[in-house]
Amino acid sequence: MASRPEIQAPPEIFYNDIEARKYTSSSRIIEIQARLSERALELLALPEDGVPRLLLDIGCGSGLSGETLSENGHNWIGLDISPSMLDIALEREAEGDLLLGDMGQGLGLRPGVIDGAISISAVQVHFIVFTILIIILYFLFYRSSLLRS
Fold first, then answer.
1. Is residue 87 one of the residues assigned to a domain?
2. What CATH number is attached to the domain comprising 10?
3. What global pTM score does this model have?
4. CA–CA distance, 97 with 105 (Å, rounded to integer)
5. Using 50, 70 and 90 to split pLDDT, how confident is the model at 20?
6. Of 33, 65, 111, 121, which has the fewest Cβ atoms less than 10 A away?
7. Tens of pLDDT along 59-96?
């Protein structure tokens, strides 16, 4: 299994200006980000009391998911490892506060500061790989236990 890109080389190698612009200008990506962001908000099950919440967008990139958060009346903080993606978010006048950082290093925020978090294009890739690994291990274990019986 390949190592995470951010461990192999600096983020500028994988998330440079060209790739960041290509990603942000893709109508397919924009549509997918919006739909997944809407679903993420549903899954957060935030109270529907009209009070804006402070949400964290982990791996916010150029702020595509943050647009959905803003459109739904929420405030947000975006965290991303790529300066190029954050530069585009600034150019696009993203309404959230943007932080340059690695999600694996934490943020150092006090508990209760953030009302919820989403991650549309960052965490799920690692989750999918992890899930596939668990399934493979399960079948290997299950198969080996059947062979011993």
1. yes
2. 3.40.50.150
3. 0.75
4. 18
5. confident
6. 111
7. 999 999 999 999 999 999 999 989 999 999 999 999 99
